[in-house]
Amino acid sequence: MSVTFNHTIIAAKDREESARFYRELFEVPQAPSWGVFTNVQLDGGVLLQFAEPPVEIQVQHYAFLVDDALFDRAYARIQERDIDHWADPHGAEPGRINHNHGGRGVYFTDPAGHGLEMITTPYL
Fold it and tell me: What InterPro entries does the entry give (predicted)?
């Protein structure tokens, strides 16, 4: 059997708000949810499970590979919603995208403060 990534739990201040943010940004339908999880399902069956832990949230980094058309639409939503974004992971190039690895990329944060990266070309 080959190895594939199946799911991860993403800590959220408000799991419904975070799940909605990802669904709207990446244009994915609502997925069945259960227990303490509000789920978002991506292509390939990858499941993002949003939960509200009773501890301080530690910021994580999540990168998403998207096609050019979705990048254009999602980036337009980032701009329309006035979401702070940067061309670099250090926040030195605000309001811009990058053209690294022969594609395009942008960094921004989700409602819980996690650092997100959206790219059109994989690093390797």
Answer: Glyas_Bleomycin-R_OHBP_Dase, Glyas_Fos-R_dOase_dom, VOC_core
Q: What is the pLDDT of residues 102-111, one digit of tens each?
A: 999 999 999 9
Kindly tell me the sign of the dihedral angle through the C-alpha atoms of 48, 7, 41, 72.
positive
Q: Which segments of the chain does DSSP mark as H helices, in order?
A: 15-26, 68-80
How far apart are the C-alpha atoms of 71 and 11, rounded to whole Å?
25
Residue 29 CB partners (closer than 8 Å, separation 6+): 23, 41
- The structure tokens listed for 81 are 């919603």
State how many domains the chain has. 2
- Quote the pTM value: 0.95
Residues 24 and 67 in one domain: no
Q: Which amino acid is at 44?
A: G
* Residue keyed to tokens 């942008």: 106
* Residue pLDDT, tens place only, 7-20: 999 999 999 999 99
Please check whether residues 69 and 112 belong to one and the same domain.
yes
- Domain hosting 28: range is 1-52
